[in-house]
Design brief:
Layout: H1 8-25, H2 33-75, H3 81-92
Helix pairs in contact: 1-2, 2-3
Length: 96
């Protein structure tokens, strides 16, 4: 997802991905070329949409993970996700 769709690197990966999809589709007798292409394109768009929608959430999860592992290292106690989720905002926004 870090490449522009018009870049040569994207086209190379896209071609490789479609070839793999076509090989898989060849094993199904009623799977046409057009249906394979449509399914592949839909899958690519779904992946791109999920990436764009969750890009910021990944950063949040990474901060929770960093905070929890730092806390675990200091106390040698297991810190669960919920505790990290509560403590991360307190670390960054002291008034909470």
């Amino acid at each position: 997802m870090e490449y522009e769709r018009a870049s040569s690197k994207w086209k190379e990966m896209d071609d490789r991905g479609f070839c793999q999809a076509a090989k898989i589709a060849a094993g199904f007798p009623r799977m046409s070329y057009k249906l394979t292409l449509m399914a592949y394109e839909e899958n690519v768009w779904n992946l791109m949409f999920d990436y764009w929608q969750r890009e910021d959430i990944d950063r949040l999860f990474f901060e929770i993970w960093k905070f929890a592992t730092k806390k675990m290292g200091a106390t040698d106690k297991k810190v669960d996700f919920r505790a990290g989720l509560v403590d991360v905002p307190k670390e960054y926004i002291p008034s909470i």
